[in-house]
Write a structure and sequence with these properties.
The complex is a heterodimer of chains A (about 375) and B (about 290).
Chain A (H helix, E strand, L loop, with lengths): L1 E12 L2 E12 L3 E5 L6 H9 L6 E6 L2 E2 L10 E4 L11 H11 L4 H15 L14 H13 L5 E5 L7 H18 L2 E6 L2 H7 L2 E6 L2 E6 L1 H6 L4 H6 L6 E10 L2 E6 L7 E5 L13 E6 L4 E2 L11 E13 L3 E8 L2 E8 L9 E7 L4 E3 L9
Parallel strand pairs in A: 3-8, 3-9, 6-7, 7-8
Antiparallel strand pairs in A: 1-2, 1-4, 4-5, 9-10, 11-12, 11-14, 12-13, 14-20, 15-19, 16-17, 16-19, 17-18
Helix pairs in contact in A: 2-3, 2-4, 3-4
Chain B lengths: L5 H37 L3 H5 L13 H9 L10 H31 L5 H12 L3 H15 L5 H25 L3 H9 L4 H9 L4 H17 L2 H6 L7 H10 L7 H36 L1
Classes of the chains: A alpha+beta (about 375), B mainly alpha (about 290).
Chain lengths: ~375, ~290
């Protein structure tokens, strides 16, 4: 049973359409991440769930109740803002207790709630400070404390980590995940960072230009992107999207990757997608993630379709945990992910293994995946 | 090879600096001279002034002109000094400043954080009010004061000054609140705070600098106003500026220049004090509004 449901949501600002019919749902205790490039409408979507923006049409239900016209404070939600939005004139303790104070919760009960939350987040020693005296990470904790103390049905996070430095961001990411595992409260989380989306989510919704592109588990989104936008957006380094031609050898389909003056690479496709045969002798986009394009020794032993081809390595980028090698295929720069100790030199030609069971094909006209 | 001489550059610097400081000091003297003349002559007996030499220090120091200006000088037909008019001005300025500041803050709050259709038109109209010359509104104002029965009273003056100041106070607060993070308002909404709770608990505590700016601005303008004061006051509601004019024009045979000087300083004193006490905030608040707005 889904807990938070969004049905065909439209949102216009005057003549500008921001959300163009988004439908989503998340089960109780789920972690929904809304991800997309800036301007895709993800923050607006979150604000409509919070009730901070009125919607043009559609319906939002929390726990079965329609909340379209409810005031934000009546929706039983709590929100953590990108800028933390701590009240500058109040101490940390007052910040956390402000909502309870407005609702007329007795002082003793407020004190107890502040105590519980500050213990959970380890901010007990900060309670008498003003927000201006806190570091970025501490402010982040206080902002989460203010949300936690409400014990809401849904938590809303609006890019909560984007103002932190890189190391702290990773620490806080783990902390949010741990908190979610402990509290088991439903969370809707907005980010433009696809790694945050992958690591935190139980469900990811990828948005672009006000349309929902794909909605699914992190693994579905990563392994089976529905179109080139999702394929390109999720994953770092991004998926290699190589212009290619579909051919046939006997009754087997092949994919041909052009290499300019060198002889093209022809790879057999043993288990092609059903519609791929319609693209015979036509151009397609061949999508292969860097980790599915590797040195033969480092290739996935369980892969069912492995094909090896010699590639000319142009650039080598050791990254410590892996080594990235850049080659050129189909006129595009293509990144391969090799073992850290792969002995490889720029300017040489070396065999690379293509894991074709992980490869995907896209129609270059519609940009959609060929299934 | 010629290397630019450090020495030379330094010397040019000193020379330019000397000129700048000389000019600045001359201007400072030029601007302070009238105040000096006023202070010095208000502390002299009348005979010393009549002998000429306005710039000389008093040979015989006296505060009699000040006492006279305050409580016994002839103003119009009554020898009351400026004291009752000083009180009139206070009675007029304090409520006018307070009300226009509070309303300006509310206007700024609504115009930035509770946007509605046509809000920029409303703001534009209020801005326009800042540019309307006083003289144009004299007759309509008189008519309205007459209709409301407030003509010639201190509440009438308060009303006129409040309305006339509203454009400025709204402008100040709107620009200040424009830079105030909207996420804070949203956080407070989710916390369940209402319109006035957000205003009082979140916005006002952060409005210190702009409140100081507005209060100084309004206080100075209303305190120094002569036109409305002379047009809309009656015998018992005359403000200090008008009384000062009457003091200077009431002749009992001799022109008591020392008393006039003392009276003029008395009339200017409150605004001076306000500036000296909170001038720092004035500049800071104006900058905050200007840069961030």
């Amino acid at each position: 049973m889904s807990f938070l449901q969004i049905d065909n949501l439209h949102k216009d600002f005057g003549a500008t359409k921001i959300l163009k019919g988004v439908s989503l749902e998340i089960e109780k205790g789920g972690f929904l991440v809304l991800v997309g490039p800036s301007g895709c409408g993800k923050s607006t979507l979150l604000n409509t769930i919070a009730g901070l923006e009125p919607i043009t049409s559609g319906e939002i239900r929390i726990n079965g109740n329609r909340v379209n016209d409810l005031h934000p404070s009546k929706r039983d939600i709590a929100m953590v803002f990108q800028s933390y939005a701590l009240y500058p004139n109040m101490t940390v303790g007052q910040n956390i207790a402000f909502g309870m104070e407005i609702r007329g919760v007795p002082k003793a009960q407020r004190e107890k709630a502040i105590g519980d939350v500050s213990k959970l987040l380890q901010i007990g020693h900060l309670l008498d400070r003003k927000p201006s005296q806190l570091s970025g990470g501490q402010r982040q904790r206080v902002a989460m404390g203010r949300a936690l103390v409400r014990d809401p049905q849904v938590f809303l996070f609006d890019e909560p980590l984007s103002n932190l430095d890189a190391k702290l961001r990773i620490d806080m990411r783990t902390e949010i995940k741990r908190l979610h595992q402990r509290m088991k409260t439903t969370i809707v989380y907005v980010t433009h960072d696809q790694i945050e989306a992958m690591t935190l989510a139980t469900k990811i919704a990828v948005l672009k230009d006000g349309y929902l592109q794909q909605f699914g588990t992190p693994a579905e989104i990563y392994n089976n992107p529905v179109n080139m936008f999702v394929a390109d957006f999720m994953g770092s380094p991004a998926m290699n999207l190589i212009p290619a031609t579909i051919g046939a050898e006997g009754n087997k389909l092949t994919v041909t990757l052009d290499r300019g003056e060198r002889t093209p690479i022809v790879l057999p496709i043993t288990v092609p997608p059903k519609d791929l045969s319609n693209f015979k002798d036509r151009r397609v986009i061949f999508g292969v993630r860097p980790e599915a394009l590797t040195d033969p020794d480092g290739a996935d032993r369980n892969a069912t379709q492995l094909a090896t081809a010699d590639c000319h390595i142009e650039v080598v980028e050791p990254a410590g945990s892996d080594t990235f090698a850049v080659t050129a295929l189909g006129g595009k720069q293509v990144v391969a992910r090799l073992r850290a100790d792969a002995n490889i030199l720029p300017g040489t030609t070396t065999p690379l293994a293509f894991n074709l069971s992980k490869a995907v094909f896209f129609d270059p006209d519609s940009q959609n995946r060929i299934v | 090879m010629s290397v630019p001489s450090q020495d030379n550059a330094a010397r040019t610097g000193i020379f330019a600096r000397a000129i700048i400081y000389t000019v600045l000091i001359l201007f400072a003297i030029y601007y302070l001279l009238p105040l000096y003349v006023m202070v010095v002559n208000s502390l002299k007996p009348l005979e010393e002034i009549r002998q000429g030499n306005m710039l000389a220090l008093p040979r015989q120091w006296t505060i009699a002109p000040w006492l006279s200006a305050w409580s016994t000088a002839q103003i119009g037909v009554t020898p009351s000094g400026l004291k009752p008019y000083f009180i009139n001005s206070i009675m007029m300025v304090v409520p006018a400043v307070a009300i226009s500041t509070i309303l300006g803050a509310l206007n700024g709050y609504v115009l930035t954080k509770w946007r509605f259709k046509g809000d920029s038109i409303v703001f534009g109209l209020m801005l326009l009010a800042c540019f309307i010359p006083f003289q144009i509104v004299l007759i309509p104002s008189a008519r309205i004061l007459g209709l409301t029965g407030l003509a010639g009273s201190i509440p009438g003056l308060v009303l006129i000054h409040m309305i006339y100041g509203l454009g400025f106070t709204t402008l100040f607060f709107r620009n200040y609140y424009e830079a105030f993070p909207t996420e804070l308002i949203r956080a407070a909404q989710i916390d369940g705070a209402g319109f006035f709770q957000i205003f009082r608990r979140i916005l006002l505590p952060s409005s210190g600098p702009i409140i100081v700016v507005t209060v100084i601005w309004q206080f100075t303008n209303i305190w120094n106003d002569f036109l409305f004061g002379s047009s809309f006051s009656s015998v018992d509601s005359i403000p200090l500026t008008v009384a000062l004019n009457n003091l200077v024009n009431s002749s009992t045979g001799v022109k008591e220049y020392n008393v006039h000087f003392a009276g003029a300083i008395l009339a200017a004193l409150p605004t001076l004090i306000v500036y000296i006490v909170s001038g720092r905030y004035f500049v800071r608040g104006l900058m905050a509004g200007a840069v961030k707005g």
